[in-house]
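Researcher: We're teaching a course module on how sequence relates to structure. For the next exercise, students receive a sequence and then see the predicted structure as tokens, so they can try to spot secondary structure elements on their own. Here is the exercise chain.
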Amino acid sequence: MSDEVRTKVFEPFFTTKEIGKGSGLGLSQVLGFAQQSGGGVRIESEVGKGTVVNIYLPRANERVRDATAETAPESTAKSASANILLVDDDNAVREVTAATLRELGYLVWEANGGIAALECLANEPDVNLMIIDYAMPGMSGADLARRVANRWPTIPVLFITGFADRDGLAGVGESHIVGKPFVNGELAEKVRAVLKEG
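Model: And here is the predicted structure for the students to work with:
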């Protein structure tokens, strides 16, 4: 790959494939997994010859525990700077976005659609911010935001959307919209700004 491509390969949604042929989340997820595990990633690439991706993970000195029933540690919840409910029907996109938010120090709940989000709010009312994908099947992001505003009017909303959906968000200020594909810096900046407003 070229030097220009190489500098962007870990950005969420960056891809050299045609529209509809790939999400650009593969290497972003690899880097996120490696960093969460205390490791890293190195790329060796030469145009016309190929690319090698090396993943470095620390050696575990303890036996692996069954964490399937564990919830977020209490210390994590106490140290989180805000509680965010992330709503996106695309599992891969939601996982990458959630990992990014957690790296920024937020406690994140995930919901795969409007109904799941409303159920989460009913059980976890201490939500400081909702980040909602605008284009979702069934209940759209706009519909969900309206229902949340009626029942939980103090919870601010940040929309994640593609440019094709901007017409539906005509009344929403740019400070409450993150366009797809986004870079981590933009997401972090807008999350901080919306939380500061509240």
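Model: If you want an answer key for the exercise: Strands lie at 40-46, 50-56, 83-87, 107-111, 129-133, 157-161, 177-179. The chain has two domains: 3-56, 74-197.
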